[in-house]
Design a protein that fits this description.
Layout lengths: L6 E2 L4 E11 L8 H9 L4 E4 L7 H6 L9 E5 L2 E5 L3 E6 L6 H16 L6 E14 L3 H5 L6 E3 L2 E3 L5 E8 L2 E15 L2 E18 L2 H6 L1 H18 L3 H6 L2 E2 L2
Length: 247
């Protein structure tokens, strides 16, 4: 595989998220926000989210709501979101780069581990969403290393919403491509093709302390796999337009 860029001068990132999901636990949002508010200290703010207004029994029975965050904790440019069975760490834009994002993830998990939550870890994931700018469908499609033919139709100037699930051992990479997307980059409204890579690793770890204590190597390898999938979706010309630097 070609060398991966270390940094990009023109970062297309619009979202970066880490998530861990647990099974057999009481509602995490009843436990963690108060603990983290105390443990993180000054500058921490807890915000109640709309899903918190839905009664827990209803959230428990609805697969879409089981992982809907009900509380958000804001601290130093990062957000910690807590649902009934999941913990999410996300960073605000501009993206602070992986060497700054990873320590925050590890720190949050080490703090959560101090609570001694019951229940096993069933999966963790990193998700990166990028918006590559181009004005028309045709130009957006030309940014991506793909060829799509349906019957006698060669897709070259159409709206595309494509998702591929790639299984690699205990990891699933969900690659989503969507043209005609809109978002904000550097405070400006932009449009282009959305490249969303969600890398999910299934595990069976008996407790959060064991998981947090052994997370770093797995997290690093999962992020690298995610990065490989993203750049593998792009043409070399597209990467060059982003101003890459290499080690």
């Amino acid at each position: 595989m070609a060398p991966l860029p270390k940094t990009l001068e023109r970062e297309p990132l619009v979202d970066a998220v880490f998530e861990v999901r647990l099974s057999g636990v009481p509602p995490l949002a009843d436990i963690l926000p108060g603990f983290l508010l105390h443990d993180l200290g000054p500058g921490t703010e807890v915000i109640r989210l709309p899903a918190a207004d839905i009664p827990f029994p209803m959230r428990k029975e609805d697969a879409k709501l089981q992982f809907a965050p009900t509380q958000r904790i804001e601290i130093n440019g990062f957000s910690i979101l807590v649902g009934d069975r999941n913990i999410v760490v996300s960073c605000k834009l501009p993206y602070p780069k992986w060497p700054n994002f990873k320590p925050v993830i590890l720190d949050v998990m080490s703090r959560v581990a101090k609570v001694g939550l019951p229940g096993a870890i069933e999966r963790y994931s990193v998700k990166y969403v990028n918006l590559i700018q181009a004005p028309t469908y045709q130009e957006q499609i030309k940014k991506i290393a793909m060829n799509i033919t349906l019957g006698d139709l060669e897709v070259s100037n159409e709206h595309i919403n494509l998702q591929v699930h790639r299984h690699e051992g205990d990891t699933i990479h969900i690659l989503s491509i969507s043209t005609g997307a809109h978002g904000q980059i550097d405070g400006k409204a932009v449009s282009g093709v959305l490249v969303d890579i969600d890398s999910i690793r299934h595990v069976n770890v008996s407790d959060i302390r064991t998981f947090a204590g052994n997370l770093e190597d797995g997290l690093e390898s999962l992020r690298r796999s995610n990065k490989e999938k993203f750049f593998g979706c792009l043409l070399e010309e597209t990467i060059k337009e982003m101003g890459p630097t290499y080690e």
